[in-house]
């Protein structure tokens, strides 16, 4: 056990909803081995969950973790990680959000909240420093996330509390349900909102008056100033401040990397894209900007619609994904309607990625004559038809009619509908895929092998969309091809690097966008090690920190091995993306070739020290990382497979 | 003194508030800061309401213009240049 009264709050809050027992344990028994945030969440889940527990059972657990550097002035250190068993894949469920909740949690004296069991009636958890209580939430049940926030603040008589909540979608255990943090930031993917709903847990409200202490304050401040000055001068940061993450959409469309009409293509036609560009959102709808705690970039943008059928809508956040999903996958070309869809999802507590993907699947099935109005409750489903999309969003949240099928995600829905509809379900390990992956090979590898079931928040590269030069690539990654979208060669090395870096960022609570993910000038692992050492007094080198990232990455891999038994065959892209090339855009003709993919996987597993045939970590690798418990479970997984 | 030059540009990042608490205590907190920032993303008002405690206040420490620091931390770290040091009354 490493003791440090610095950096960490020092406590983990444990709440059993079945018995209403609330107690704490020390954070220190988990550090520095699992660091914080995602790392500690994942370790707690790995240690305590058995493979036969299903996501919506009371025995499942859900962990909320503020990163180790949250509450300080490290730029972008605002992230909260939420982890549980994945409602889609039954492997790891993991997501992260900014806002101010994680900071408030640390000021209340907790690094993590771990929830298990199921409350008899709906409840919410109130945390005011040491005063922790479960409160009745019967009157909140059925309410939107925005109204839930307001009512809890009224109930507790505290206006500046930080709240995370689920909407009707979570209550109804719609698998695409997410958790909404600080009113507008979504912890999407993996059905984490549905898991909160399955426990009758509507919300968590936090208010803290304590402090985060720093071991070497003056040196820490100097490093904050140096890094902040460098970040503020970066072009990418300026663009995100001006447009939010929407600024990234043209980069992807210009590389034929945005799924269009459920992967009919990976490029949004130019005349369509012009109507939903980042400039349109800023010039026509933006009214304010906001930043998460300690972030100099302010990528949060508030939009207001003043005319047309959606007049009166205020949308608190739109991401690049908003455009990829509703503008690309569903082919909506009306920016106001896209904002309306985004806001509906936010208020109902639906993750825009999984929601839009299953709707795109339904439209594709309808267009191909697999389903008709008889199945869709009388709705005609056409590409870009925002009225029917908004209807479906509501139906999914309330599991009403056809929405009850869609609330299962596209793979499960296709198994209900049958009639060849699985052809239109694009998923990874059972969770819907949102990224256009045929053109950029490193982006594709990172998305496809991700242990959480798709998604670009593990090893997917941003070096291709940012077109790193060969020299820059060589200098940072010792391969020349990081910036070359079409190249397969060298990509496993870069993906592996970012898998470790992202494990660190999620565990330290630092945003990807202030890190070196999109630019070499972002915060580097060396600087993360310095920040951590100065803050906590636990000296850690860059190499030791990267090893910690590797440990956390292997831990998640082992969760999937033990709980589901995913193997190499689960690390291949959907078949159609290996057979049907991109039809238009600058990288027209690109697809993912079987032979090249095989080679990439061989190299990727080799770099990790994993068995190339099964994709599973070896005993030796787990020993090297000090993961003895994982080694034991590896043996059990092998026995189960025989 | 420190003046609030353009509160409409405030993004609510709380860097000033955290920096202020750091000056007073060498720790980070929301409560031991001379600065209050009220930013609501739910209303249509741009920016935030900001106030600084310059006189004795039971709840909050008084702004001492970062005595002992190389420069006033809230002013120098604010990414939007919302705060400014003036030499006037």
Which CATH class of the largest domain in chain A applies here? Alpha Beta
> Are there runs of chain A of 5+ residues with pLDDT below 50, and where?
none
Helicity of chain B, as a percent range: 10-25%
Total E-strand runs of chain A: 18
Coarse morphology of chain A? globular
List the helices and strands of chain B in order: EHEEEHE
- Content of β-strand of chain B: 15-25%
Please state the structural category of chain A. alpha+beta
- Estimated structural class of chain B: alpha+beta
Report the radius of gyration of chain B as a whole number of Å. 12 Å
Interface with most residues:
A-B, 41 and 30 residues
What is the end-to-end distance of chain B?
Answer: 8 Å
> Mind summarizing the main beta sheet of chain A?
6 strands, mixed
Measured distance between first and last alpha carbons of chain A: 38 Å
The helicity of chain A comes to 40-55%
Give me the CATH superfamily of the largest domain in chain A: Aldehyde ferredoxin oxidoreductase, N-terminal domain
Second CATH tier, the architecture of the largest domain in chain A:
4-Layer Sandwich
| Average predicted confidence as pLDDT of chain A | 96
Strand order of the largest sheet of chain A: 2-1-6-3-4-5
């Amino acid at each position: 056990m490493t003791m440090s009264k610095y950096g960490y709050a020092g406590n983990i809050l444990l709440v059993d909803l079945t018995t209403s027992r609330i107690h704490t344990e020390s954070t220190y028994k988990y550090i520095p081995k699992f660091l914080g945030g995602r790392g500690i969440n994942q370790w707690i889940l790995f240690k305590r969950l058995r493979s036969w527990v299903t996501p919506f059972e009371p025995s499942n657990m859900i962990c909320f973790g503020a990163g180790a550097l949250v509450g300080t002035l490290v730029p972008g250190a605002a992230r909260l990680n939420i982890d549980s068993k994945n409602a889609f894949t039954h492997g790891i469920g993991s997501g992260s959000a900014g806002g101010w909740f994680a900071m408030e949690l640390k000021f209340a004296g907790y690094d993590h909240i771990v929830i298990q069991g199921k409350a008899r009636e709906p409840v919410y958890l109130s945390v005011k420093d040491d005063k922790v209580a479960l409160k009745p939430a019967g009157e909140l049940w059925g309410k939107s996330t925005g109204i839930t926030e307001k009512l809890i603040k009224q109930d507790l008589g505290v206006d500046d509390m930080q709240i995370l909540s689920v909407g009707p979608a979570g209550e109804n255990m719609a698998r695409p349900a997410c958790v909404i943090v600080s009113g507008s930031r979504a912890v999407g993917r993996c059905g984490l909102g549905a898991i909160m709903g399955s426990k009758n847990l509507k919300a968590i409200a936090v208010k803290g008056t304590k402090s985060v202490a720093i071991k070497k304050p003056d040196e820490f401040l100097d490093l904050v100033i140096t890094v902040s000055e460098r970040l503020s001068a970066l072009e990418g940061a300026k663009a995100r401040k001006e447009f939010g993450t929407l600024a990234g959409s043209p980069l992807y469309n210009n590389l034929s990397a945005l799924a269009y009409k459920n992967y009919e293509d990976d490029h949004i036609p130019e005349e369509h894209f012009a109507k939903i560009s980042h400039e349109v959102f800023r010039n026509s709808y933006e009214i304010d900007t906001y930043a998460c705690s300690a972030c100099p970039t302010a990528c949060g943008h508030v939009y207001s619609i003043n005319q047309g059928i959606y007049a009166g809508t205020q949308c608190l956040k739109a991401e690049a994904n908003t455009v990829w999903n509703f503008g690309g996958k569903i082919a909506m070309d009306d920016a106001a309607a896209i904002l309306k869809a985004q806001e509906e999802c936010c208020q109902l507590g639906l993750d825009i990625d999984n929601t839009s993907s299953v709707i795109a699947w339904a439209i594709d099935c309808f267009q191909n004559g697999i389903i008709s109005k008889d199945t869709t409750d009388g709705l005609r489903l056409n590409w870009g038809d925002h009225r029917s999309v908004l209807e479906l969003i509501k139906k999914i949240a309330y599991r009403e009619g056809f929405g009850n099928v869609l609330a299962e995600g596209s793979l499960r829905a296709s198994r209900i509908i049958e009639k060849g509809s699985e052809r239109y379900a694009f998923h990874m390990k059972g969770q819907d895929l949102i990224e256009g992956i045929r053109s950029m090979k490193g982006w594709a590898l990172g998305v496809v092998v991700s242990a959480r079931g798709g998604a670009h928040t593990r090893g997917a590269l941003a070096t291709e969309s940012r077109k790193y030069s060969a020299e820059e690539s060589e200098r940072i990654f010792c391969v020349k091809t990081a910036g070359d979208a079409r190249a397969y060669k060298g990509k496993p090395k870069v993906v592996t690097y970012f898998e470790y870096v992202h494990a660190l960022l999620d565990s330290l609570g630092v945003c990807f966008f202030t890190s070196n993910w999109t630019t070499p000038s972002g915060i580097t692992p060396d600087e993360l090690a310095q920040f951590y050492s100065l803050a906590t007094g636990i000296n850690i080198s860059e190499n030791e920190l990267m090893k910690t990232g590797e440990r956390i990455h292997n831990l998640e891999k082992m969760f999937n091995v033990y709980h589901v038994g995913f193997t190499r065959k689960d690390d291949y892209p959907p078949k159609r993306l290996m057979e049907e090339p991109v039809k238009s855009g600058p990288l027209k003709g690109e697809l993912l070739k079987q032979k090249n993919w095989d080679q990439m996987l061989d190299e990727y597993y080799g770099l990790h020290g994993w068995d190339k045939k099964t994709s599973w970590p070896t005993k030796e690798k787990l020993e090297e990382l000090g993961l003895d418990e994982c080694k034991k479970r590896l043996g059990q997984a092998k026995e189960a497979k025989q | 003194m420190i003046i609030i030059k353009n509160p409409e540009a405030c993004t609510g990042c709380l860097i000033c508030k955290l920096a202020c608490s750091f000056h007073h205590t060498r720790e980070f907190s929301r409560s031991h800061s001379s600065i209050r920032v009220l930013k609501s993303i739910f209303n249509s008002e741009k920016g935030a309401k900001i106030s600084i405690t310059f006189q004795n206040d039971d709840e909050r420490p008084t702004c001492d213009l970062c005595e002992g620091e190389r420069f006033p931390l809230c002013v120098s770290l604010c990414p939007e240049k919302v705060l400014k040091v003036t030499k006037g009354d």
